[in-house]
Structures are given as structure tokens and as C-alpha cells.
Amino acid sequence: MANSASGDSVVDRIVRIIEAFPEGSSSLRLSELAATAGLPLTSTHRLVRQLAEHGLLELGAAGNVRLGMRLWELVNRNSPTLALRQAAVPFMEDIQQVLNQNVNLAVLDGWEALFVERLSRRGSVANRARVAGRMPVHISSVGLALMANQPRERQAEYLEQFSDPAGRVTADVVRHLLAETAQQGYAQLAGAVDPDTWGIAVPVRNMKRRTVAALGVVVPLAEMRLQALVPALQTAARGIGRRLAE
């Protein structure tokens, strides 16, 4: 791929354009897109037109640019999480039906929990998790459940580079949380993101006993029923694991 004057390749520039769309917004003016991507307006316009020809972006009459339906189609058709989501949703619906609260499914990507599915209802407590959104491992129960079930080498690498931008949590605290999670078989975090909520999560393992995801719920502190929640989540996680093997 040809490089620009700044040294970045065409692929680099395309990725920067696609990443420029903020969460919750699928449309930007061309000038906003160029500024957010850090690219010259002329280069952005040329790349946007080329991407639009393939349906990956759409150009509106008013100069607005939006993500194309073709991009959504390709991502969802070939997503590695598709089978996981299909296996998990029926079990997530069962849990939500009983609890009437938020149910999340996440995978580990780097040092973050990447949410691949989320179910909630009107009246549920606040839930900052969003599909295709991320949270640092140490502030999400699903993140802790995922990391606590990784090989020791990966946990050590994570703890070695760990830093909390808020300055509230140290690597030693996270190490204790991971050890506690591994011993108990589930993760729990109270008020880490919202002060009035409690997150509970368990690992989802495939038939080879490898942790491939984490299943969690977010409930009000006042309605916390650990003895009832954990067995329900663990049963659902085992069911998801069996479905993945089918």
C-alpha cells in the first residue's frame, strides 16, 4: 500500500476514518470526519468516495458521511462472536426473565472486556455496558471473570503493565481480586462504575475447558442475592458451553 507524506499507509488511513465515528453516532460531516481522523480534507474526501463505491460508507446529499450497510453486513456475517452470541442469547433471555435486570456477555480483548451482547428492560438499573463497547478489566465483573481464568503468564503480563487512570486501584488490589475470583468461581464488584449497582459474572468455558467469554448481571445493591444469582449464572454458562460444541 502506498504511504502518505506522514508515512501512514492507505489501510492506516481507512482504519482512522472508520474509527472516527463516535459511539452512538453513525453520521458525521465530511469536515468533522477529516478532523477527527487527523487527515487532510482532500484525502478524506477521496477515500470516503472510494469506500462509498463499495458500500462501506454512504455519502449524503448534505455532505454527511455515515457507516454503510455493507460494512455492518460483512462484520456480522463473519464475526467470530456470532456463534457465541447465538448460543448465549436464549440463556441470557431466561436469566433476564427471572431477574428483570441487565445481562451482559463479554470477551477478553487485550486488557479490556469487549461486550458482544447485552439484554436489559425498562426499569433495570443503570448499565454502562454497550454492545461493541469496552471496559477495563478491573472495573467490570465480566472483565475480572475473564482475566482470572487466563493462563498465569497472561495474568502476570496484565498486572505488570497495569495502571488505573483514576488512581484508585493498585496492581496488588487487582491481583487480590483475580485470586479471589479464581478461588470462588465467580467475580463480584460493588459500585465500581455506578455506586448503587453490583456486578456478578462467571466464566463461560468451551468443551476444552478454555474460557471463551464471561456472563454477568448488573443488579441493584439493595436486591443483591448472591446465593441465588451465582448458581443461575453458572448453570447458564454451562448451557452456553454445551451449545458451542454443537
TrEMBL record:
InterPro entries per UniProt: GAF-like_dom_sf, HTH_MetabolicPath_Reg, Tscrpt_reg_IclR_C, Tscrpt_reg_IclR_N, WH-like_DNA-bd_sf, WH_DNA-bd_sf
* SUPFAM superfamilies reported for this sequence: GAF domain-like (SSF55781), Winged helix' DNA-binding domain (SSF46785)
Q: Which domain of life is it from?
A: Bacteria
Q: What is this protein called?
A: IclR family transcriptional regulator
Keywords, A to Z, come to: DNA-binding, Transcription, Transcription regulation
Q: Which GO terms describe its molecular function?
A: DNA binding; DNA-binding transcription factor activity
Domain IclR-ED, which positions? 70-246
GO biological process annotations for this chain's record? Answer: negative regulation of DNA-templated transcription
- Any signal peptide, and if so, which residues? none
The HTH iclR-type domain sits at 8-69
Question: Cross-referenced SMART domains, in alphabetical order?
Answer: HTH_ICLR
Spell out the PANTHER family in the cross-references: HELIX-TURN-HELIX TRANSCRIPTIONAL REGULATOR, ICLR FAMILY, HTH-TYPE TRANSCRIPTIONAL REPRESSOR ALLR
